[in-house]
Write a structure and sequence with these properties.
The structure is a homodimer.
Chain A (H helix, E strand, L loop, with lengths): L5 E4 L9 H14 L6 H19 L3 H15 L6 H16 L8 H11 L1 E7 L2 H11 L7 E5 L4 H10 L7 E5 L2 H10 L3 E4 L13 H5 L12 H9 L2
Parallel strand pairs in A: 1-2, 1-4, 2-3, 4-5
Chain lengths: ~240, ~240
Amino acid sequence: MVSPLILGLDADDTLWENQARFDTAQAKLRDLLSPWVEGKVVDETLLNIERNNVKLYGYGVKSFTLSSIQAAVELTNREITADLTTAIIESGWWIIKHPVEILPGVAETLKILSSNHQLLLITKGDPADQYKKINASGLSHYFRGIEVVQEKDPNTYLELLERHNVDVKDFVMVGNSVPSDILPILSIQGRAIHIPHHSTWGHEQVDESVVASFNFPVIESFSQLPDILATFSEN
Amino acid sequence: MVSPLILGLDADDTLWENQARFDTAQAKLRDLLSPWVEGKVVDETLLNIERNNVKLYGYGVKSFTLSSIQAAVELTNREITADLTTAIIESGWWIIKHPVEILPGVAETLKILSSNHQLLLITKGDPADQYKKINASGLSHYFRGIEVVQEKDPNTYLELLERHNVDVKDFVMVGNSVPSDILPILSIQGRAIHIPHHSTWGHEQVDESVVASFNFPVIESFSQLPDILATFSEN
């Protein structure tokens, strides 16, 4: 029997590695700027610039590259060179061209899940980046719908659930980001399952006290999803 | 009586000014690089870089900004300075922050069209840029659907028409770009109306001989749409 539960699955760092690529590029930037400032200053400056730029640029590799160039202008006391600029641009290319690395257990588990549930892939970011990864992953056929959204806020979720004719009571969102995949869903009376990932972008980190006031299941790996969903269906 | 014809409307340079902003930013780039090379060389180099980068970056302001920085590195013989880099980044911000300027007659005509047809807004590009403009335009309520796509190729159109339950026989696409708004629609046996715009991006220009082999109506302004569509309905 197909469960009426519809699953929303985040992609970056839930189905495949993503943040680790940006972490590598950011380590490279710290290296490039080490003649001028300490790594800690690079991280802080870049995060501040990214926070400001997200309103203008949205998320993704191009946004990260432009913010990195801006950080380099600022932190080199305007001594930025052509070599430095080119290295930063190439670092962005490296992220874009990096093969998709599917997380352990994901492919097998998607096969099981898709025979029992309708699946929606719901990811935030730059569609140029996202569709490239979705196509390269070879996993897109498991999904009834693929949604690349600008922001994962409650209104975005409500709008897309309505468009897919899904009652939020029957919806379970699964992902690695508490502010993007979990809290907005709880706020619209949906259910959510958190699968933490080893690397989380500074912009996606939330205060522990905020998280503690909510109650949602946390599992260690994607492979545990069918078991935990079986307990959901009994509700 | 509501006509069964469903209209697809392009946005940039069909509903509002767009290319003119990029032209201004490109003129600024020619100015900035004038100590090194002639304007013509800037235009040619930038177009080549953009053509290569579109596969990695997609379209839009961030893509344009990164390509401009790359052109500046190349054309200054790697003497690019912080001031030059900052000026290019700010040129991109200027495009993003520029108020949406709706083309003459568009608002009135959309009101007429939307009472007789279902309208889909179909635009290519960076969703961060596009949704900002769509929201700022105040025109989004005229549309039954809004689609920001990566490429306007025949498959993209077929996929979105199927999703919106539109038979291509009942579909008319309207836009300023022959390769994006007209030719792919004709290739899937749909109909299309061309409204040329004073400024067209180099990447969107097509060979005259290609165009001459196809037959599609060309009108001078958006306000002429209801009249020409009246002749379509009689078919």
